[in-house]
Amino acid sequence: MDALSPPVDLDAAPAPTLGRSFSATDAELEPHELREFFRTEGYLAIRGVLSHAELRPVRAALDEIIAGGKLAAALPEGASVGTEGTTYADRQSPEAADGSVRSTAFCVRFDRPEGTFRQLAGHPRLLQLVRLLLGERVMLFRDQMLLKPPGGQPKPLHQDQSYFLVEPSDGLVTAWVAIDDSDAHNVRA
After folding, report:
1. Which residue has the higher pLDDT, 144 or 68?
2. How far apart are CA 184 and CA 67, in angstroms?
3. How many CB atoms lie within 10 A of CB 166?
4. Taken in order 118, 129, 169, 19, is the CA torsion positive or negative?
């Protein structure tokens, strides 16, 4: 980024929207079309890959982590929890006092083989889509859940490759799964 360029205030303009998205139940899911769309656009949004029922155990595990913070029984040893307050540059600001759970990381790596987070990462429909883009050999590089409390600090659009620097650069896919529906009651005003 040019040092003279002002930062972009994503809250000052309407939120950017993704162009096309696909539905997991549509007959339009042609593998070659999905691969080409991903290659040219840099993202692939597919609605309905996992059902509410399939996500219910993940939501329950997250609720337990949120209720117990770092000491939650559901948090595997070696996993981590971050808070909303730690995302602010000014740690003395009133916002930095917010102890709401903001993120978890490494839950899959340290989860039991039959554990909730590992089951989510290895879900057959999710893996099928990742293999479509990367090929048959898939390795989990990192897991992370970003939890955005209503009114919390925004998470600007970004590309994960700039954080993780995986080589080859086209060997990284972030599988983003929405655990909750977004509606007028749980989004930032």
Report:
1. 144
2. 23
3. 14
4. negative
